[in-house]
Amino acid sequence: MKHARRIALVRRPASTLAEGQLTHIERTPIDARLARAQWRDYVAALEAEGWETREVDPADELPDSVFIEDAVVMFGDVAVVTSPGAESRRGESAGAAAAVGGLGVTVHRLELPGTLDGGDVLKVGNTVYVGQSLRTNAEGTRQLAAIVVPLGYAVVPVPVTRALHLKTAVTALPDGTIVGYPPLVDDEGLFDRFLAVPEAEGTAVVVLDEQTVLMSSSAPRSADLFRERGYRVVTVGISEFEKLEGCVTCLSVRIR
Ligand code: CIR
């Protein structure tokens, strides 16, 4: 299949990575060298699958800046630079705005008191599920809706109380099936087609193309489930980012 454009924004890990935010899990030591190697492997996996990667300027003083997905959300040729919900992450927006500014897309910015992390935004076709979490509030959701509803999207707020972000709990396969780890999902009934996965790390899939998903090597049984459904699964080790409540989606912003 020929793709007109497949660009992924990535942001290399800060030297302060180990100080990243933690909400639902205990802090365990981060192996900084392994984190850098895993990040390079993640970037290499995207490139091997035909994605051109572009680096957002690194931000060493921002521990969570590697989780670039939270700082900007793409809707076709429209970029929404977010207003991060954690105070320690607010500085990430400037670099994200500069990066999308160079892509020739329309750029919008969310503003306080609205807060929204990209990890709470799950697009499935024209539906935009927005997790109402500790990071994303009603005003942030309202500002996002004001931008994307005129573009033809429907915004559906969903409660997120058992996970950091909506996409920590659920993501979507290329056919639109929502995949989630039930203990992390507030209400499976909100989704038309829901497939339960057996591992917490198995909820996060990056759609690389209609046949292929990228996911964490920490979830081999979930990977088998996706293979049984006919998908090709590319796996990457991201243990050091999982220790910081990161997942495979949050390490890039895909522009297609
Ligand atoms: C945080 O708490 O903000 C980071 N330590 C992890 C962010 C993960 N982002 C994501 O799932 N989209």
Describe the structure.
The chain is α/β, with parallel strands linked by helices and 256 residues long. It has one domain: 5-stranded Propeller (L-arginine/glycine Amidinotransferase, Chain A). 21% of the residues lie in helices and 24% in strands. It contains 6 helices and 15 strands. The strands form 5 sheets. The chain has a 3-stranded mixed β-sheet with strand order 2-1-15, with helices on one face. Strand 1, helix 1 and strand 2 (52-55) form a beta-alpha-beta unit. 45% of the residues are buried. The mean pLDDT is 97. The structure holds citrulline. Residues 20-21, 23, 64, 67, 69-70, 86, 89, 119, 164-165, 167-168, 244-247, 250 line the site of citrulline.
Show the helix and strand layout:
Layout: E1 7-10, H1 32-48, E2 52-55, E3 72-75, E4 78-81, H2 92-101, E5 106-109, E6 121-124, E7 127-132, H3 138-148, E8 154-159, H4 166-169, E9 170-172, E10 178-180, E11 194-196, E12 206-209, E13 212-216, H5 220-228, E14 232-236, H6 239-242, E15 253-255
Parallel strand pairs: 1-2, 4-5, 7-8, 10-11, 13-14
Antiparallel strand pairs: 1-15, 3-4, 6-7, 9-10, 12-13
The structure holds citrulline.
Citrulline binds next to helix 4.
Short description:
Helix content is 21%, strand content 24%. It has 256 residues and is α/β, with parallel strands linked by helices.
Q: What is the annotated CATH architecture?
A: 5-stranded Propeller
The ordered string of helix (H) and strand (E) elements is EHEEEHEEEHEHEEEEEHEHE
Q: Rg, please?
A: 17 Å
Number of alpha- plus pi-helical segments:
6
Number of strands: 15
- The CATH topology, please? L-arginine/glycine Amidinotransferase, Chain A
Bound compounds, each kind once, are: citrulline
Oligomeric description of these chains: single chain
Percent range of helical residues: 10-25%
Active site: 165, 250
Binding site for substrate: 22, 64, 69-70, 89, 135, 244
GO biological process, one term: positive regulation of nitric oxide biosynthetic process
Protein name: N(G),N(G)-dimethylarginine dimethylaminohydrolase
